[in-house]
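Changelog excerpt

This revision adds worked examples to the README so contributors can see how folded entries look when concatenated. The first example is reproduced verbatim below.
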Amino acid sequence: MAKQKSIQLSVPKPCTQAWDDMTPKTNGRHCDSCNSSVIDFSKFTDREIIEVLKNIKGSFCGRFTEYQVNRPIAIPAQNNNSFLSKAMFGTVLLAGVATATNAQASHQAVISPVQVPVPIPINNTNYQHKANKENQQNTNPKQISGIVTDIKTGVPIPYVNITIEGTSIVTRSDSGGKFTITVPDTLTGKITIDFHKFWHKERDFTLKTTKLPTYMKVGLRPKKERIIMGRTFNCPAF
């Protein structure tokens, strides 16, 4: 298995220019001091950073949170064999259909009627009804849906990690901040659901499994992270 590629961003000499004094433009601002564009990565996910860097060669100016620099950022693997796999699957499928057709034609003349014994029905209605009721009670997971938003702006927050503490149950909010998490009936008493996003403060809720809500609107407060701005270099990993 090939090792997954990654890049690491660093700003050796942070810029001291005031961000608010720069001219706004698409994806960032223009710095008059060095006459260059500064891309604002501070609200980007790792995947969005990778997509932007695919079109950049050499050095560039960027604005980052402290969390985004000096750590490996994994590059998603691309499946270059998707077309070949589909073609091979189609060939195997056609071969299988042809084989089945030939087999059917070769055996068509020797098919003879077969007598199949019909079982006598047993009156077990009450037993079956009781079994279905027990199975329904034993497999009755509860789903909690909702949306995660910024507590100050009200803007939905995408890709928030949502976990039930002490379990392996985890999900993420979608691009619109919406989520659904399933609570199995094996969990009893109280559970704690944790909402975590690296540029927002973590928040958790302790709930009783006997009174779980069906919908939650969760507000997260943004962190006051240190912003780093300056020139960095795109790693030639693409």
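The second example, added in the same revision:
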Amino acid sequence: MSANVQKLCETTREKLKIAIDKVELFLNQHALPQLVTEQDEETVHFYEGFLSDLRHVLVFSEMSYEKLGVALRRATFDESFAQKALYNVYHYGVNNFFYPKNESYSEDGRYAYTGQDAIRFRKKPVRPARDIILDITKLYEELRDDLTYYENDYLTEKRMQNQV
């Protein structure tokens, strides 16, 4: 089991690094003035929320990336620490991506298996904003698929251990 957890930490960390690099590049190149093409209040509010959500995704992803790095660098692999780190990737990183606080976009599961983009924006975004979300969606979908266990079974297992 430990080898599987270690491998999952490695692949998760690699995917997070790709997402972090893409989001960081986007945020370094795009601020509110570059995104707001129409100066109406609704558009400004949409992009304020969009940028805030993207910053949250970045912070949670960076924190998870660091925790996984700690887990992998330890002289003796601590499976319990690693599992908690993987749970946090799912719980904070993946969930914050798919359920952003400001709801500038959302996932529409009806499109997930049609080959179409499953992400729907509340307001039609400018191309760079649309592209960054669609670009990293695949990574977060893969992370969600890889880590689904940690959303359900991991918590159940931890609760049972505390009751014993």
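Reviewer comment on example two: The first strand starts at residue 105 and ends at 107. The chain has one domain: 2-163.
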